[in-house]
């Protein structure tokens, strides 16, 4: 804005809102104005929820998930199958798999993938924690639910090597046609994998 | 989420973020996770900016703008032309006109438009404040920058009637082709107005 039209507190709020993914400079202005208008219904509760979450949020020392308790809600849930461990790159992957609601297992969040070009080595990821969790026993299967990218697959290979000799089954997600997907739009690699892993009808 | 995967503070933050315009349930999750990851760089400053703005924000008693001071930054700016008053429906319109940076005038925010069907009458808008500002003198022109909708135009007519006898020039925004607009996509009303108000080339 060429000229100041609002106090510095409002301009700062807009600047920071614009950095939230999903909002840009324009929608941040719109969001700030909406919040100011819905002061009691939304602005006040949101501000309180932010302060509270900010104060309480922490990393789970067991699995690397983010939560407001340590160990986290997933790690302390007694109904989950403790013998299966799903390894994911990021907390967002954990949340995505939970939305699928296909398994009731525990998780281990790596916090990224091996990427030598970016200077990310095994010590920068939560891999040691994974090895010691498995070494403690009680886990029969480790599912590597990393992304199907070069970095993700390299990380999966590294972890598989590290787990050798620990008497645990290591599996990975199936490759294939996404549910609702059209063959015409799929790449050759996916189609080849789907053909290779075909199942009885 | 079918099963609790995070503490109630995080779920509440996601629920409230989802009500911010521009964010939905999916992007609210993504935004919450991003905030948690950028705890020091974004989450903490944003939370502080929200608390501060929430505490300080108020309506300007002169013009109806929202700001952290009363009278607001626009009303107290000594460089603005106090003889011209731009009447807008909403604070967002004030901000939009300021971005155009075409005039350095003062504003008056109505807070909506007359809408008998929704039960919005003259007393529900900041019209009395406008009349008394003009009656106090010192204002030579009132620009009615209301939306080009039926309600906006009805409100403009009502205000013009109220201002009769107060010795002030009442103008409205020009109708015409938007800058960068293509004639082919414009409605007949706009084209007719643009032809009627044609200017020398």
Automatic annotation (TrEMBL), chains A, B:
InterPro entries recorded: DNA_Rcmb_RecR (IPR000093), Rcmb_RecR (IPR023627), Rcmb_RecR_Znf (IPR015967), TOPRIM_dom (IPR006171), TOPRIM_RecR (IPR034137)
PROSITE patterns, A to Z: RECR, TOPRIM
Pfam families named among the record's database cross-references: RecR_C, RecR_HhH, RecR_ZnF, Toprim_4
Any single biological process term in GO: DNA recombination
Spans traversing the lipid bilayer: none
A single GO molecular function term of this UniProt record: DNA binding
Protein name per UniProt: Recombination protein RecR
Function per UniProt: May play a role in DNA repair. It seems to be involved in an RecBC-independent recombinational process of DNA repair. It may act with RecF and RecO.
First and last residues of each zinc finger (C4-type): 60-75
Residues covered by the Toprim domain: 83-178
PANTHER family per UniProt: RECOMBINATION PROTEIN RECR (PTHR30446:SF0)
Domain of life according to the entry: Bacteria
Similarity remark: Belongs to the RecR family.
Annotated keywords: DNA damage, DNA recombination, DNA repair, Metal-binding, Zinc, Zinc-finger
């Amino acid at each position: 804005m060429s000229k100041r039209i609002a106090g510095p507190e409002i301009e700062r709020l807009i600047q920071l809102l614009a950095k939230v993914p999903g909002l840009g400079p324009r929608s941040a202005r719109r969001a700030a104005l909406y919040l100011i208008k819905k002061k009691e219904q939304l602005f006040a509760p949101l501000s309180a929820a932010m302060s509270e979450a900010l104060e309480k949020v922490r990393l789970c020392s067991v699995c690397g998930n983010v939560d407001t308790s340590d160990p986290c809600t997933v790690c302390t849930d007694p109904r989950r199958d403790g013998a299966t461990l799903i390894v994911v790159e990021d907390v967002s992957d954990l949340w995505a798999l939970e939305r699928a609601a296909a398994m009731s297992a525990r998780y281990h969040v790596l916090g990224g993938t091996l990427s030598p070009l970016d200077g990310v080595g095994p010590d920068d990821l939560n891999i040691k924690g994974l090895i010691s969790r498995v070494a403690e026993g009680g886990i029969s299967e480790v599912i590597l639910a990393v992304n199907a990218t070069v970095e993700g697959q390299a990380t999966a290979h590294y972890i598989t090597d590290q787990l050798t000799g620990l008497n645990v089954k290591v599996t990975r997600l199936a490759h294939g046609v996404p549910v609702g997907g059209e063959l015409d739009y799929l790449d050759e690699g996916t189609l080849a994998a789907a053909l290779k892993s075909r199942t009885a009808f």
